[in-house]
Amino acid sequence: MLRWIGIIAALAWPLASFSQDDPDPFADSTTELGNGAYVFGNFSARSMIWVGEDGVIVSDPTSTRHARALRDAVAALTDQPIRYVIYSHQHWDHSLGGQIFKDDGAVFVSHQACIKHWQRHPHDELVMPDVTVETGGRISVTGQTIQLRYHGPNHGDCMLVMQADGSDVLYVSDLVTPFSLGLGFMPDYDPVEWIRTLKELEADPGWQRMVGAHGSAPAPRDALAQRRRYLEALMVAVRKGMDQGKRLDDLYGSVELPEEFHSLRGYDTQLARAAERIYYYYLMGW
Ligand SMILES: [Zn+2]
Description:
Radius of gyration: 19 Å
Shape: globular
CATH superfamily: Ribonuclease Z/Hydroxyacylglutathione hydrolase-like
Helix content: 25-40%
Oligomer: single chain
Low-confidence stretches: 4-20
CATH class: Alpha Beta
Bound molecules: zinc ion
């Protein structure tokens, strides 16, 4: 359901080690995904671009720098204007920098639940949305319709998953950083609801590739399933440690996951912080 509203609201990304053979993972690039869809950005921040016949839809301006580069990337693809900017969720490392698109007349879209966060925590570089959705919605230009899916709380409480009609690519923003732990400890992530959301997405056969807002892109379906398995294994490991009488200080550095996860980026640096979030989940009931 779409609702017009009459208002008028940086995380340091953990650097992973990369092979010297890799191209610079922090250099911006545009990757074509088919059906008029592209992913733009670098390992730190990625936005989707969907090119239609009379306009363009993009996700997550991210920052003033990224938004300028995104606008240039769109201009290199098409003369059509950017008509919609869709926020995946409220975190500032996704939602800032959109003013240049607003100045060009773009309509901004988010989930309704993001509004309260931005009202409480306004930011000079944040453009408040013109349109919000609650149960989900669709945003269209001629030749491109983007489904906005809402799966309830997971990574925060206003995450929108996006997929264009006719495309096999699912944009999941921070729900999955492929083959990486991402930022280990986000206070507003709900591990149980996050696992539920990932299972719902896994059960949907209507997509084959996924794009996250950070990390490598695009990634295969198993990147999403692996993220779910990682969260489940993390919960099991922390629960086990707590059942053995370990407190937080003891858990730090002693949580270990099955071999499958040892090669994930950030395993050595982020795991303790992720375990801390799970520790508090079991201790506080949330
Ligand atoms: Zn986030």
